[in-house]
Amino acid sequence: MATGLNRRTALSAAAAVAGVGAPLLAGCGSDDSTATDAGSSAPSSSAPAETPAAGGAESTGGDVFAKTADVPVGGCAVYSDAKVVVTQPTEGDFRCFSAVCTHQGCLVSSGSEGVIPCNCHSSQFSLEDGAPQAGPASAPLEAVEIVVDGDDIALA
Ligand code: FES
């Protein structure tokens, strides 16, 4: 029975620590299906130097940080390095927002439940415009411009 108390105490301590570290962990909401990010050493080097796209003198220039296939239809994928969340409200329609929750600054999480969830205090944001839909957050996530080129997603 003492073990129960010890375990409870340990869990409380862990929760306290997690409370402090939660923003970072939540950002890694990329418990990754998407995550080449969290992987070991930098697979992001898969784009060694941008190949000059046919047709595009437009060096809108951002690095490719995501693949369309990583973003579920009706869901979102968080890219913690860029601190953005990419959504796909309907097939082929990609949008991007700051992943920093407007409530208290945690990074929102990836999900496929029709909203952008923030696991810190259960806020939820619209996949379409980042507007708050539930929870304590009252301001929308800031929109971020992206360029979708084939299956690559880059910051604009
Ligand atoms: S920081 Fe996102 S709900 Fe509180």
Give your account of this protein's structure.
- It contains 1 helix and 9 strands.
- With 156 residues, the chain is an alpha+beta fold.
- It has one domain: Rieske Iron-sulfur Protein (3-layer Sandwich), CATH 2.102.10.
- It is globular and about 35 Å long.
- FE2/S2 (inorganic) cluster binds next to loops.
In short:
With 156 residues, the protein is α+β, with helices and mostly antiparallel strands. It has one helix at residues 2-27; strands at residues 64-67, 75-79, 84-88, 95-98, 115-118, 123-126, 132-134, 146-149, 152-155.
List keywords for this structure.
single chain; 156 residues; alpha+beta; Rieske Iron-sulfur Protein; three-stranded antiparallel beta sheet; 1 helix; 9 strands; 17% helix; globular; disordered N terminus; binds FE2/S2 (inorganic) cluster
In the CATH scheme, what's the topology name?
Answer: Rieske Iron-sulfur Protein
The main sheet comes to: 3 strands, antiparallel
Shape: globular
Report the CATH C-level class: Mainly Beta
Please tell me the CATH architecture by its name.
Answer: 3-layer Sandwich
